[in-house]
Amino acid sequence: MKALPKDLRYLLFDLDGTLTDSAEGILRCVQYALEQCGTPEPDAEKLRPFIGPPLLDSFQEFCGMPPARAAFAVEQYRKRFSTVGLLENAVYDGIPELLEKLREHGYVLAVATSKPEVYTLRILEHFDLSRYFTAVAGCDIHRAGETKADMIRLALRRLGLPEQEPPQTVMIGDRKHDVLGARECRVPCIGVRYGYAEAGELEQYGADWVTDSVETLGELLL
Predict the structure, then answer these.
(1) Do 112 and 194 reside in the same domain of the chain?
(2) What Pfam families has UniProt attached to this entry (predicted)?
(3) Per-residue confidence at 157, pLDDT binned at 50, 70, 90?
(4) Catalytic residue among 14, 16, 178, 208
(5) CATH number for the domain harbouring residue 180
(6) What is the pLDDT of residues 45-100, one digit of tens each?
(7) Is 14 labeled as catalytic in the residue annotation?
(8) In what order do the strands lie in the sheet with 135-139?
(9) Quick one: which of 64, 165, 180, 190 has the most CB atoms within 10 Å?
């Protein structure tokens, strides 16, 4: 594996599948939304592709919903997620300790996620992770169509960095959307296999580095 740039300073983290294991809450909320749409899916495992991408895209791509129907499904998802689902979640073992070490090492940390920012802030606060991050960027719950690249650009702006090819910066995430969003902003990307990617997904979409665990992510960065 090639070495990281020696002057690396800014780390942008995805949330779901990178900092927290949020599968239970996401999948239960997708099931709820599909029930409200009259198309129930009792097998939650079939819905795992929903973890990571923007919800509106997922309901259209994976369920074949037209835009208006997909927007209704997103509303139903958020109805349950905002009250129950966001805390059906757990921080990956070793993440708090890693974030502490990264800060001590001099890194500046940020979150760039496709999850609505209002939920992201609540999750980080609930799990006592907020204190590690200088900036948090999530989508606007009232604005459809925001992409992962949009969230990366928002995080970069909040860090006072250029939106394209920022210096000393890397994105860390577990899905192809993290890799592709980073590439659009000309930011290198570390893929983590302990999240929700399919086998070979991160390599296929061109992650610059790939690690298997929180421990090996720390070894790469420190």
Answers:
(1) yes
(2) HAD_2
(3) very high
(4) 14
(5) 3.40.50.1000
(6) 999 999 878 899 999 999 999 999 999 999 999 999 999 999 999 999 999 999 99
(7) yes
(8) 135-139, 108-116, 10-13, 169-173, 189-192, 209-211
(9) 190
